[in-house]
Each structure stands twice: as C-alpha cells, then as structure tokens.
Amino acid sequence: xxxxxxxxxxRRRARREQWIERQLENGRRAAECAAVGLLWTAFSLPVFTxxxxxxxxxxVFDRWADDEEPPLVATFVAALxxxxxxxxxxxxxxxxxxxxxxxxxxxxxxxxVFGARLEMFAVALLAAFAIGLVLLAxxxxxxxxxxxxxxxxxxxxxxxxxxxxxxxxVLAAAVCVILVAIVPALALVLAxxxxxxxxxxxxxxxSGLPLPEAGAAHTDEKGGRRRT
Length: 228
Fold this sequence. Notes:
This protein is mostly helical.
C-alpha cells in the first residue's frame, strides 16, 4: 500500500507539473502574440506599411508552425523590408473591397426597395469572403513565397480543398472587431492574435494538400531555434 500510494502521488505530481508547464507555455505564447500585435501597430503607423507589417506577422507565425523560435523583432523587421510592395498590394486590395462593400451596402440600404436587405447581406458576405481570401493568400505567401499570383492561386486551392477555411478566418476577424468595439485599447495588440488565427487556419487547411513551395521561405538558413 505504501509503495502504491507513493507511486500514485508521484504520478499526480508529474501530471500537475505538466499542467503547470502547459499553462506557462500558453501564457508565453499569448504574450508573444500580443507582442507581434504591438509590432504590427507600431510599424503600421506610416499607414502604407500596414500590409507589409501584416505579412511580417504572418511570417513569424509561419515559422512557429514549423516548430521554430525565430528572433521576434529581427524576423518581423526583416520580413517587413522584403514585403513592402506585396504588402501594399494586399492592403490596397482589402481597402478597395471594404470600400466597395460599404458603399454598396449603404446604397442598397438607402434605396428602400424590396430585397434591399437581402442584397445588403449578400454584399457583406461577398466582401467578407474576399477579404478572408486575401488574408489566406497572405499566409500562403509567408509560407511558400513566390509571386502575388502564386499566393492567390495557393489560397484558392486551399479554399477548394477546405471550404471552411475562409468562414473561420472571417469569424476570427469578426471576434476581433467585437472585442475592439467592447475594449478599444485591444486594437493595439489584436492584430497579433488575428494573424496567428489565420496562420493556424492556413496550416490546418493545407494539411494533406500538396501546394507548390514557390519561394525560399523555408530553408536551413532561416535561423532561430527549434521548439522542444
């Protein structure tokens, strides 16, 4: 009985220590996500760099998906420097989609005709889907590199194989918008968790789906240390 009790106590202590380690790791990961969000906010202040900063955040999280621990700030800045043009294109695309969707919804709402509400809902859904596709394309670019066209084709392939990917991305974005509406100060950090969520959806969607590794985004020269 004594030996059995001692063994059970040791197992309970081991499980407790493992649980504590997992919580500490989760807390560290949450803090790093928030730090990436702060980096995005800081480097987006010139406005035209917001898209490149998003791609830089996506690069950091893609490295996490490869079980790496890259230097956070150095990786973010290096990726931002190489993604200025692509990031600006993605930023303009999201802005254009949002603007067209907003004005179309406003016009349909002001028309006061039969079916206007249905049209407003359909336009909002289409705009949300298009923005979600752009976000997935950004994650694809961070993962595989290549041209903008390669990233878009990769994102479309992902959506074809995993139709749930875009709805999940849109849901994550909607949750972030709601949280910011409730606590505006969260706008400073929520870009990090949102980019992490998009990366997680991208990883899950591409599992089992062969996609072209078009760029040199994943080489032995990436640096950083492997997660344990």
